[in-house]
Design goal:
Blueprint lengths: L4 H11 L4 E4 L13 H5 L6 H10 L4 E6 L5 E6 L10 E7 L8 H7 L7 H9 L8 H14 L6 E3 L21 H22 L3 H10 L12 H22 L4 H17 L3 H22 L6 H12 L7 H8 L3 H12 L3 H19 L4 H7 L5 H12 L3 H9 L1
Parallel strand pairs: 2-5
Antiparallel strand pairs: 1-4, 2-3, 3-4
Helix pairs in contact: 1-6, 7-8, 7-9, 8-11, 9-10, 9-11, 10-11, 12-13, 15-17
């Protein structure tokens, strides 16, 4: 199966929130490599020295792993494939390997930045991803770079290619520019809106793609405990997801159960690695809530009936009882329910009861007659026949299949 290694590498890096650039001769747009940070900090900054260094020093069959004077990191290599334009340079980054609060003062002193520009540098750091361990990222790029360069005499160079601008050679900007921070804020809000819209529609695939972009935005710290700062972020995320699902007309009882589950999981986490595994599960589970319980396409009357059925499976659920709860005529309810949902009210109730029975069979050792009672069916024989009609096998065989 043919694939484009450049496109694959780009997708992998974007999934981690890392910028991926292909610079073509004569590299006129090289200023994008640092997200224009230097042009924001220094008057009339000329990227010519960096452009020339990449052109002259970036050799074929070499992956350069380098760090600049702002302690941001890059992976760089030349695309030497026959199909590539002569001199194409792949640059991946910037990203951080230390939380910016631990390095901000040191970088400011080293680069002789005046106080008025401290916020600009901090905003830059907040807009690029942070990784405690870059081993996986480097390994992915090394494998694909080796493939791109045909593997022969391929080397990884961590020392030769350096960006060491001397702050003494540049004049600091007299006034802070807000373009960098404003564009970052605008991008963050746009991604957040698209992310929450995907959640609201139960689109887990799109939501996961948008969530990867959040890796580019570090948190404004509230204290020196990095894990606590990330916990605070996930508490906020849990709240945002809860509100997005609520807009899809999912009953609050369903939402609250999920929200409480993730609150406990977040609080019990003790490391950034554990916290980062929670995010995909949160997204998928909240999207499932929308897919399974969203009532936004139904009228308020039918929403009231469906919610009552969901939370009162053990109660009498006759057409007459439900019509009384909905405060409508029984004949109208029957017709309207079929019109809006596409199924009879009785079939809907039976389906919900069997779904709940499947849950009990999967998660408990309760006897089948007890499960039948827990879903509102007192006749065990009738329950078994109904279960077989909907699930394709009796509950006893279903349980045996789980054990086997």
């Amino acid at each position: 199966m043919n694939f484009d290694p450049i496109e694959l590498t780009q997708e992998l890096m974007h999934a981690e929130g890392i910028n991926f650039h292909v610079f073509k001769k004569p590299y006129d747009n090289i200023g994008r490599f640092d997200m224009r940070l230097r042009s924001q900090l220094y008057v009339d900054y000329d990227y010519e020295d960096i452009r020339q260094r990449l052109q002259d020093d970036c050799q074929e069959k070499t992956l350069y792993i380098t760090t600049d004077q702002f302690e941001t990191h890059y992976l760089i290599f030349r695309d030497s494939r026959p199909v590539a334009d002569d001199g194409d340079i792949i640059l991946i980054g910037p990203f951080l390997t230390s939380y910016y609060e631990s390095m901000l003062h040191r970088v400011i002193e080293r680069n002789n930045l005046p106080a008025i520009q401290h916020a600009e540098l901090k905003n830059h750091y907040c807009g690029i991803p942070f990784f405690e361990d870059t081993g996986v990222i480097e390994s992915q790029v090394i494998i694909l770079a080796r493939y791109i360069m045909d593997g022969t005499d391929f080397v990884v160079d961590r020392t030769s290619l350096k960006f060491k601008d001397s702050a003494a050679g540049f004049e600091n900007q007299p006034e802070p520019s807000t373009r960098l921070s404003m564009s970052m804020v605008e991008e963050r809000y746009k991604i957040e809106d698209e992310f929450l819209e995907a959640i609201e529609h139960g689109d887990a695939q799109s939501a996961l793609l948008y969530s990867s972009s959040f890796r580019k935005f570090q948190l404004e710290p509230r204290n020196t405990d990095i894990v606590r700062n990330f916990k605070n972020f996930f508490y906020v995320l849990n709240t945002l997801l809860r509100k997005a699902v609520q807009r899809a007309d999912v009953h609050p009882a369903h939402i609250d159960e999920t929200s409480a589950y993730f609150f406990r999981m977040i609080e019990a986490s003790r490391s950034l690695e554990t916290l980062r595994t929670i995010s995909p599960e949160m997204i998928r589970r909240y999207c499932r809530l929308v897919l399974n319980h969203s009532l936004r396409k139904y009228s308020k009357t039918i929403q009231r009936v469906i919610n009552h059925v969901d939370f009162h499976l053990t109660d009498p659920l006759s057409l007459k009882v439900l019509a009384g709860i909905a405060k409508v005529n029984a004949s109208y309810l029957s017709t309207q329910f079929k019109k809006e949902t596409g199924q009879n009210l009785t079939d809907h109730i039976n389906q919900k009861r069997i779904q709940k029975a499947v849950f009990f069979l999967n998660t408990t050792e309760m006897p089948i007659h007890a499960i039948a009672e827990r879903v509102g069916i007192l006749d065990e024989n009738y329950f078994s026949r109904l279960f077989k009609r909907i699930q394709g096998m009796p509950p006893s065989e279903y349980r045996k299949s789980l054990r086997s």
